[in-house]
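Sanity check record (used in CI):
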Amino acid sequence: KKQLTLTRDKKETELITRGRHDPCVVPRAVPVVEDMVAIVLVDQLMAQYAHGNLFPLNQDLQEPLKLPKFVEVNETAALSL
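Expected output for chorismate synthase:
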């Protein structure tokens, strides 16, 4: 389609566009927004993982194990059992 327009020098000229130019971008907005949300979520997950806050350590599990105390038994008493 030819369209009349003005240049910066205020001269009239014709503007000719080629290709497809959709008058409404709404149908393309949904996939673009979905993809941007996915990118932002992955970026935040990677940032939290890098800072170590994604899977925080359970402090109850960080204490050393309490092992049972063994009682020494002499060999002769153990053999008689």
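Residues 26-51 form the longest helix (26 residues). If this sentence no longer matches the regenerated tokens, the check is flagged for review.
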